[in-house]
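Standup notes
- DV: blocked on the single-chain target, sequence here:
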Amino acid sequence: MLELFGSGYVLDHCAVQLQQEQKERSYKRYISEVLRLMGENVAKAIGGSYYASRWDDRPQPEDDRTGDEVAMDIINRAGLRVKGSE
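- DV (later): unblocked, structure below
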């Protein structure tokens, strides 16, 4: 596929995907914060409890793979073949 479209196509595609993921993540962060604040305000008004931590505050899983393992995972997910490894 890389030979057919060229590396520029792949780089452009990756850049567009990254931008879309960042927009989606920003939207989710905004909506979750609005909902959290709404719940907090209602809970304070009626004397109830609320969830105080933010969506971004949740712990992220650690990735303990080596750089080579990460690279091979990306290559395999993209369906690419590395020349000289066959």
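- Follow-up: Residues 76 and 82 are 10 Å apart (CA to CA).
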